Amino acid sequence: MEGLTLHQAITKCWTANVCLRLKPVMQALPSCVVWELWKRRNRMKYGDVVTTSRVIYQVSSNLQALVKVRKHGIDMVPHKWKDLLSMMENFTPKLKVTKVMWEFPSAGWLKVNTDGASRGNPGRSSISFCIRNENGDIVKSVGKEIEETTNTVAEAKAMVEALRFCRFQQYSHVWLQTNSMLLKKIMDGIWKPPWIIFEQVEEMMQLMNGGNYTVTHIHKEGKKLADHLANYALYHGEIECQQFWHLDAQGRRLVNEDKLQCPSLRVKVDMR
């Protein structure tokens, strides 16, 4: 860094040729250094003695804390700068693999998967739901575009639309599955609904009242057909099917994969 201006030194840190996981640390380094120098300047101005080694120690502590926040899976984060760099370069994260697949409903039950899509959030939006019986056969599947809105509103409207249909058809045992953890928590009474979907939540509660309904959460990979129908509505137009052969080729393939219990694997860094 000798002979460089402050601007050049900061640019050098931001553009340093390091591994991807070290980028945030290198980019934070100038801020940590300048902040500690500023604190030292203020203390010395009012008669307090702050050594250079103390400033270096504080910078290292800040960077150590940053790594601990960003990399929960690392048990011991070194304090010394060289050791920290070496550890980050050689760190291999532990991966957690979760198997996700569409599940068959119990005998006598119907399973409903819903999805809401928004391109732009808010932007062009669509909703979808698909109802299947205990054998995995299509009972009803719908995908249609709605007014421009957000993902959250689209998800809520998809659930309302599905419940309206189930209530109209007088289905008695319905298993509703959504990938929106927000709506799942709201339906369980754990969280309060935001004002923007308050009306939809109230209607859902009324539609479920008096019936045998259960709501669970599923990852996106476990409801691929509903996701496909929502995207189909945005790019190709409304789709409504009551039989397997009414679906497009991709929709039929997804139904067959679900029946065969083909799993999807969710891979993420193990934070424990």
Question: What can you see in these coordinates?
Answer:
- GO terms for molecular function: nucleic acid binding; RNA-DNA hybrid ribonuclease activity.
- It holds the Pfam family RVT_3.
- The protein starts with 5 loop residues before the first helix and ends with a strand.
- The chain has helices at residues 6-14, 23-45, 52-70, 81-90, 151-168, 181-187, 198-208, 224-235, 249-259; strands spanning 95-100, 110-119, 123-132, 138-149, 173-178, 212-217, 239-241, 264-269.
- The strands form 2 sheets. A 6-stranded mixed β-sheet has the order 6-5-2-3-4-7.
- The protein has 9 helices and 8 strands.
- The mean pLDDT is 93.
- α1 runs antiparallel to α2 (23-45), α2 runs antiparallel to α3 (52-70) and α8 packs antiparallel against α9.
- It is α/β, with parallel strands linked by helices and 272 residues long.
How would the blueprint of this fold be written?
Blueprint: H1 6-14, H2 23-45, H3 52-70, H4 81-90, E1 95-100, E2 110-119, E3 123-132, E4 138-149, H5 151-168, E5 173-178, H6 181-187, H7 198-208, E6 212-217, H8 224-235, E7 239-241, H9 249-259, E8 264-269
Parallel strand pairs: 2-5, 5-6
Antiparallel strand pairs: 1-8, 2-3, 3-4, 4-7
InterPro entries: RNase_H-like, RNase_H-like_dom_plant, RNaseH-like_sf, RNaseH_domain, RNaseH_sf, RVT-Znf
Pfam family, one: zf-RVT
GO molecular function: nucleic acid binding; RNA-DNA hybrid ribonuclease activity
